[in-house]
Amino acid sequence: MNRILKVTRLHLNKYENVVITPLLILAAVMAISIIIQIAIQRSTGVDVRSPDYIEGARWNQAIVWSLPGFLVYYGVQGVATTYPFALALGTTRRNFIVGTMLANALYAVYFTALMLVLLGVELATNHWFIGVYVLDVHLVGAGDPAILGPTVFLGTLFCLTIGGLFAAVWVRFGNRGPTILCLLIGLLLAIALLILAPRLGEIFARLTGAGLAWGAAAVILVALVGTWFAMRRASVR
Question: Which of 46, 74, 180, 196 is the most buried (most CB within 10 A)?
């Protein structure tokens, strides 16, 4: 257990990536969203209290699509750069994977807490005093913390774990590993789409938040298993 915690601390020692960078990304997204929505308000003269404006503003997806790229990158570099150093210090591959997963979970908790605090500020200030919707949007619960919290936590953990899987494949198989993995994932998705195509409408109609959460949890588990198998024989570079 002590070695697992040491791996976790090794990941979290990257203060700038863990604490500062997410704040900068969120600040940039919020600034851009505020500027765009103010421009829309001034050009259309819309009443920010009207139901039509609120409904349209709540479809702002910036906060959702601005973060996965960084999170996947962080998952990749967290494994690719830390793995050789950790094993050189005597950590086993199993301890490294468990310690990395624990670090990812703690990072997801931090990210979730950060988003919940910002959502609270947005609601308390009546959407930043000027009717700007950044976190109170449909894709993360439309202002419901009970939906935003699990969504951000699972989404963050999902991206970090997927990034870790690609890094593990790269460590094990070199440059061709991620390429082959991408092709394999694309092939599996194409086959699944081919099989499910006649029922896609029905599936989407029945899809719920709980279903998406279970699906994300299943993918995270599969990614962890894949990371373990990839790193069992991975050499230390």
Answer: 74
Burial of 58 (0-12, 13-18, 19+ CB in 10 A): middle
pLDDT in tens, 186-204: 888 888 788 877 776 666 6
From residue 204, how far is each of 91, 112, 211 by CA, in Å?
A: 44, 27, 11
Taking Cα atoms as reference points, which of 28, 30, 34, 21 lies closest to residue 111? 21
Amino acid at 11: H
Query: Model pTM?
Result: 0.88
As a whole number of angstroms, the distance between CA 173 and CA 210 comes to 36
Q: What does the pLDDT average to over 57-79? A: 86
CA distances in angstroms from 67 to 62, 127, 160, 185, 228, listed in the order given:
9, 21, 11, 22, 26
pLDDT at res. 203: 65
What is the sign of the dihedral through the CA atoms of 226, 231, 232 and 233? positive
- Choose among 210, 221, 216, 233: nearest CA to 146: 210
Six-digit token string for 159: 């991206």
